[in-house]
Amino acid sequence: MTRRAALVFLGVAAAVIGACGGGSDDEKSEAGGTEAPAGPKIDVVGKEFSYDPDKLTLKAGEGSTIVLRNTGSIEHDITVDGAKFKLTVPGNNERQKVLKVDKPGTYEFYCSLPGHKSAGMKGELTVT
Ligand SMILES: [Cu+2]
Hints:
This protein is α/β, with parallel strands linked by helices. The chain has two helices and nine strands. The protein folds into two domains: 2-31, no CATH class; 41-127, Immunoglobulin-like, CATH 2.60.40. The structure holds copper (II) ion. The site of copper (II) ion has 5 residues, from loops.
C-alpha cells in the first residue's frame, strides 16, 4: 500500500521534473523519505519501580530507537522533558519510539505516572 503510494509519488515527481526540464530535484526527493529515523536501538527494561539500565547515552541530533520493555504489571513510561519525549507502555508489554535530542547535555528521564519517579523510576540520559 505505502509502496504503491511511493511508486505513484515517484511517477508524479518524475513527470513534474520532466516537465520542468531540470534534474535538480533528484537529491531532494531522495532525502525526502518519510521513514522515521531508526538509528541505534536502546533497550530499556522498566518495572515497579526502576529502569534497567538507568543510564542511557545517545548522540546529539541523531535519532535512537528507545525500546521499553515493561516487565511490571502496571503501565509505565519514559518521559524526557527536554526532548518532548514520552513513551508509554502497558504492563507486560513492549513499545518503541524514536528519541532525538539536538542539544548535548545531561537530561533526566523518568516515569510520569503519579508517585513512580519518587519511588525510583528515574535515570540519566547523556547526550554527547
Ligand atoms: Cu511507572
